């Protein structure tokens, strides 16, 4: 009789009852490969289900403080609207293409960070259409004040530091991302700034 890979199957008599032989049998290609595929698919489904992930210390990635902040961000939205604001420094005098790329770095940077810690917030923001507003600030000092104000009320922030290959010096802080968060909270930090 042939097994699943065209090899003669082994009789499962007394030969397989010996201690330790089950280990050798379980790692045969006809057993191991399907198990590996099933494990991969199961892992993928778990990841897509949005179950909380654990870091190397065994603690949940999203801390209790992070959960409270997330609940505050979402519950503070009177009408359920969430948005993100990208704050561009005027004093660097970046051209439009440079501003666009720096804003893209900011949006993808905050998204990557929140994928690890606040997936629910990201999903809600996506359901709102992922609104992004671009505004300006005068200089690094004003950007620092905005960042501190946003973080003090629990809004997520991300700062883009340029590599310095084109228009600005390496390490220059070009864009501050505030949110996504409730429109009310984000506007309390960035509402007075001018649109780009």
TrEMBL record:
Keywords for this entry? Hydrolase, Membrane, Transmembrane, Transmembrane helix
Q: Which reaction does it catalyse?
A: an N-acyl-L-alpha-aminoacyl-tRNA + H2O = an N-acyl-L-amino acid + a tRNA + H(+)
Which spans are transmembrane here? Answer: 32-51
GO cellular component, alphabetical, reads: cytosol; mitochondrion
Query: A single Gene Ontology molecular function, please?
Result: peptidyl-tRNA hydrolase activity
**Record-linked Pfam families:** PTH2
Alphabetical list of SUPFAM superfamilies matching this protein: Peptidyl-tRNA hydrolase II (SSF102462)
Its EC number is 3.1.1.29
| Family the entry assigns | Belongs to the PTH2 family.
Name the UniProt record assigns to this protein: peptidyl-tRNA hydrolase
